[in-house]
Amino acid sequence: MDEDWDNLVILDACRYDYFDRLNTIDGDLYKASSKGKKSWDFMRENFATEEFHDTVYVTANPFSTDLDEDTFYHIDHLHANRWDEDIGTVQPDDIVSAAIEAHEQYPDKRLIVHFMQPHRPYLGETADELRRRLDLQGYGQHEDGIQIWGAVKQRDVTFQEIRDAYAESLEIVLDHTEELLGEVSGKSVVTADHGEMLGERVFPFTSRVWGHMEGFSTPTLREVPWLVVDSDERRKIRSSEPIESENTLDDDEITDRLEALGYAD
């Protein structure tokens, strides 16, 4: 939060190495070290201890409801009002439209936009094929079936398929990020809250590790992109008394959202 930016775009569970390979957005790319290996760690360490009344947080991540309401000038909890029940996430085009609305409504505020992708449930052709082929748990209202990591562990999904699904989801959110950056003024940074394990082994253990909820803290989970996109047009930012953020979900509904995203394996 101490860095110089007008817009901060957070890609959830985005690895530095995949971003470096797939990104086509012009800018200066650096490797940064995240303060968290999962989303709430990231939010707690970066946001929860201070007040940022010059900033609007537009987020698809349900952990945002654990932040105090006066942490930011305003929090737009997209998991409450733009949730896609069929897929079990917030679609990136809905995040873009909400972010543009926030930029237009609060032109004198810094803007944080937290996409849920490339975090699972994945988007793209490979992910669609896996959903057609497997009874996957966690998508929309679907409580039965198997979690994606369980499917790959029992070899119903190959290593390559899971990595292809992750990469395609990242490419989709990068396209939407580029669209968003073309619609907002000011200097922007694209980063991630944490990375993702995609079957790597963690010494001294012999089993492969998937996701980011197994208790490990690895360079793959901590190394995130920090892409600086400069602009000659900077916004005049000022602090104001925070306004109320609407969250229409109760605790059980928030838990359901988190389970759909794989946070209760």
Topology:
Layout: E1 7-12, H1 16-22, E2 28-33, H2 39-46, E3 52-59, E4 72-77, H3 78-81, H4 92-105, E5 110-118, H5 125-133, H6 148-153, H7 159-181, E6 188-192, E7 197-201, E8 208-211, H8 219-222, E9 223-229, H9 251-260
Parallel strand pairs: 1-5, 1-6, 3-4, 3-5
Antiparallel strand pairs: 2-9, 6-9, 7-8
Protein model, in words:
This protein has 265 residues and is of the alpha/beta class. The chain has 9 helices and 9 strands. The strands form 2 sheets. The chain has a 7-stranded mixed beta sheet. It is globular. The two termini are 32 Å apart.
Query: Can you write the helix and strand succession as a string?
Result: EHEHEEHHEHHHEEEHEH
Sheet having the most strands: 7 strands, mixed
Low-confidence stretches: none
| Strand ordering within the main sheet | 2-9-6-1-5-3-4
Please count the beta strands (DSSP E, at least 2 residues each).
9
Distance between the termini: 32 Å
Alpha carbon gyration radius: 18 Å
Strand content: 15-25%
Describe the oligomeric state of these chains in a short phrase. Answer: single chain
Class of secondary structure makeup: alpha/beta
Average pLDDT level: 90
Q: In DSSP terms, counting alpha (H) and pi (I) runs of 4 or more, how many helices?
A: 9
Shape, per Cα inertia axes: globular
Helix content: 25-40%
